[in-house]
Amino acid sequence: IVQLLNQGMQRKGKTYPYIVVLKNAQSSRIRLMGMLMSICGIMMLLFRGTSAEGSRLNLVAAAMAAILTGWNIMASRKGRKVSFRYPLLLIALSLVAILPFHWVGLLFVAMALLEKPASKPVEIGFSEEHVRFNGLTNKDHAWSEFQGIILKDGILTMDFRNNKLLQLDTDDEEDDEYDADEDEFNDWVKARLNAG
């Protein structure tokens, strides 16, 4: 089943007759990176807590981060989507706020803040006026920039007039309530390409 969000869906105040959700191939890598960074951060906090110049609060922060990380690992093994944002943020604040200060905490802050937007799937909204790619950044393309757009067997093919060709896998894990027919979508797109 292809994920097409059907008539009347809204994104940021604009109504898009169709929104195609793409697979995010990076999400499993981002989760793995978050898990590895969480484990490394816990090790750093344990080391700091047991060293002579380190505060014992590091051990408390390490225990809390270990509980959060363990919970996420267990949930991930059960097939649930998880985010390592909270353990990373806890580790970051501990590395920066608890003595001795360590600049690596700033790296953990950056990872915690970027994890959620990087894990979100890219959406392509199709409106009467343009085609919008929503991801970390938004990019609009006029219909006149396309020679053809077709959705077949879960692959969206976009042929630009400048000889650029995109073939993108769609995500079929989203809400089935909004699934639309590929033929219906292709007919609507063909009418837009012929009109523009």
If you had to describe this structure to a student in words, what would you say it looks like?
The chain has 196 residues and is α+β, with helices and mostly antiparallel strands. The chain is 45% helix and 22% strand. The protein has five helices and ten strands. The chain has helices at 27-50, 57-77, 85-97, 104-119, 182-195, and strands at residues 4-5, 9-11, 14-16, 18-21, 123-126, 130-134, 138-142, 146-152, 155-160, 165-169. It has a five-stranded antiparallel beta sheet, covered by helices on one side. β9 (155-160) and β10 form a beta hairpin. α1 runs antiparallel to α4 (104-119). The longest helix has 24 residues, at 27-50. It starts with a strand and ends with a helix. The model is unreliable at 1-9 (pLDDT under 50).
Helix content: 40-55%
Shape: elongated
Q: Describe the sheet with the most strands.
A: 5 strands, antiparallel
Tell me the Rg in angstroms.
Answer: 22 Å
Strand content: 15-25%
User: What is the mean pLDDT?
Assistant: 84
Unreliable stretches: 1-9
Q: Total number of β-strand segments?
A: 10
Cross-sheet strand order for the largest sheet: 1-4-5-6-7
Distance between the termini: 29 Å
Computed structural class:
alpha+beta
Number of helical segments?
Answer: 5
Helix and strand run? EEEEHHHHEEEEEEH
